[in-house]
Amino acid sequence: MRSSLRRATIAVGIVVLAGTACTNRSIDSSAPTTASGTAVQVTTAIDKDAAALVPDEVKAKGTLSVASGSANAPMEFFDSDGKTFIGFDIDFSDAIAASLGLKPVHIDATFDAIIPGLAARKYDMGMSGFFITPERQRVVDFVPYLRDGSALVVTRGNPLRLAMDPAALCGHRVAGEKGSVQGIQYLPAISKDCQAAGRKPVTVMLFPKLDEAHLALTGGRADAIMEDSIPSGYRAARSGGKYEVAPGDVYKPVLTGIAFPKGSKLAPAVRAAVKSLASDGTLERLMAKWSIPKTALLPDHDRS
Q1: E strand segments, 187-242
Q2: What is the number of other CB atoms lying within 10 angstroms of the CB of residue 279?
Q3: Which of 130, 152, 220, 295 is the most exposed place for a label (fewest CB within 10 A)?
Q4: Residues of CATH 3.40.190.10 domain(s) within the chain?
Q5: Full-prediction pTM beyond 0.70?
Q6: Backbone CA torsion sign across 264, 125, 184, 251
Q7: Nearest C-alpha neighbor of 7 from the set 274, 275, 277
Q8: Residues 210, 175: Cα–Cα separation, whole Å
């Protein structure tokens, strides 16, 4: 036990903002459930050392504004009521806020608007499954917390026999999310390689939200979706057999990070909170709650 920690159950008020509308909800994470319905005891530590690193201006307002997308299950999405923000990133950012003595304020933003919003200092941080890339690091700062990669999602039975192999995508219609690494970098590069090899290019189809890409897939307008590996498996398993993850290794494994405005003085406090929440098991318990595989743990966070 660390003497600098005070134990407390997470029971914080959440504000979800979407445009000018806001929804208040209280959460009691003392007994959340997994996808299978099993109760998971989740507590957080109010870490005095981490809280001491919070900048005075953030302490004064008492809140932590977190921008996330709302169509990226299990990371962040709306519950069946259409207004309750849930998911791993929501729970984990709540735990971070609680450990810093702050109240989380969740902001629903389209994925491609979050990093520009951080650059304009509209939010304290962004948490939406961001892959850490050199291009993004030129605009924002990151605190790593998971590792992920990309996968290919296809309709049930994989009728076109596609795989997460760049050569297999030539001549096909592949959807993605606007602002994603898949849409900005991977798919255009794969298409260019196809053409260089004398094959048909990839028809890249980008949508503001992944839900729209999935509608394009099931409606026959797209042949596949290239998306983050962790969410792809979660959604496919809960699609009622509409789609599945195509064969192939995870494409370009990469660190996933919490994003901050460049030079943010808050990042060191969040980094310390993430380390504390990994050490006390909160991170792994939330991963289990949301069916995130242990392979997503960073080596420094693995307690086994």
Answers
A1: 203-207, 224-228
A2: 16
A3: 220
A4: 5-148+255-301, 150-252
A5: yes
A6: positive
A7: 277
A8: 9
* Residue 291 token pair: 């069916």
Amino acid in the structure at residue 166: P
- Give, for 28, the enclosing helix (H) or strand (E): none
| Residue whose C-alpha is closest to residue 107's, from 64, 169, 60 | 64
Decide if 235 contacts 129 (C-beta within 8 A): no
Give, for all 304 residues of the chain, the pLDDT tens digit.
333 333 333 333 444 444 433 333 333 333 333 443 344 556 566 899 999 999 999 999 999 999 999 888 999 999 999 989 999 999 999 999 999 999 999 999 999 999 999 999 999 999 999 999 999 999 999 999 999 999 999 999 999 999 999 999 999 999 999 999 999 999 999 999 999 999 999 999 999 988 999 999 999 999 999 999 999 999 899 999 999 999 999 999 999 999 999 999 999 999 999 999 999 999 999 999 999 998 899 988 877 6
Fold adopted by 5-148+255-301: D-Maltodextrin-Binding Protein; domain 2 (3.40.190)
Domain 150-252 top-level CATH class? alpha beta
